[in-house]
Amino acid sequence: MSKLKDTKIDLQRRAVVAGAVAASSQLFSPLAAFASSKSMDIDRFVADCIAANKETDAQVAVNEVLARAVSTPGAVLAALGEPDKAGLNVLLRSPSLTIFAATWTPQMNLMPHDHLMWANIGIYTGREDNIFWKRTPEGIEAYGADALFVKDTAMLPEDALHSVTNPLQRFTGGIHVYGGDFFDTTRSQWDPETLEEEPSDGARIRRMFQRENERLGLTKET
User: Fold this and answer.
1) Alpha-carbon distance 193 to 130, whole Å?
2) Does residue 17 carry a pLDDT above 80?
3) Dihedral (C-alpha) 198, 201, 205, 208: value to the nearest 10 degrees?
4) Which of 133, 140, 150, 187 is 20 to 30 Å apart from 113, CA to CA?
5) Is the confidence at residue 20, as pLDDT, over 70?
6) What is the crossing angle of helices 58-70 and 42-52, to 10°?
7) Contact 76, 69 (CB under 8 A)
8) Has residue 154 got a pLDDT over 80?
9) Helices (H), strands (E): how many in the chain?
10) Would you say residue 1 has pLDDT above 80?
11) CATH 3.40.718.10: does it fit domain 33-215?
């Protein structure tokens, strides 16, 4: 009986230790807590965004769909994959709605720019820091900031002007939804050092992501 009791105690101790190790691995791995989630249905997500875009307040309705999606970031990662380069993975492009997954290399920056359409952003891995700018008679000046963490969403109005940074030493990924054709809209960007206004569009933004991959030796196509 003594040997049997000792065996039971030893098994219990091993179970406790195993549980502690598992819990510790989840505490120190930013993605571990989401690893077992089911894959997001991308087609359903896009269809829900299209339907929401027909609502009276389209931006708010679309943001509700986006918030539901990034509330289970593991499911988004399972569907889109772990980011391993800078890129814009386009899920939908139409005259009234653009959806893509934007992935940012560690400590990647994007200069101040506008969209000329409303934009919703939802983070599914990493972090996105935004500085908000406004036009003045002398040019543009910074006036606010916001940090978006995993599961966070943000709604930017049509006249928003912001710059973006991934402050982390790992990749960041976010789903971006725009109330128009992001790639066929001529807009503005500002030189990060001089703050001189320059023309911008979707093609220019793509090239910036490509250059970031080249800089880091990530030669896969974006």
Assistant:
1) 17
2) no
3) -50
4) 150
5) no
6) 160
7) yes
8) yes
9) 5, 11
10) no
11) no
Between CA 222 and CA 220 the distance in angstroms is 7
CB–CB of 78/37 below 8 Å? Answer: yes
Q: Which of 49, 79, 78 is nearest to 153 (CA)?
A: 49
What are the structure tokens assigned to 156, written together? 């930017």
Tokens of 130: 């935004």
DSSP assignment of 24-89 equals HHHHH-TTGGGTTPPPP-HHHHHHHHHHHTTSTTHHHHHHHHHHHHHTSHHHHHHHH----S-EEE
Residue 14: its pLDDT value, please? 42
Q: How far apart are CA 98 and CA 88, in angstroms?
A: 11
Give the CA distances from residue 195 to residues 124, 164, 182, 186, 188, in Å, rounded to whole numbers and listed in that order: 31, 15, 22, 18, 11
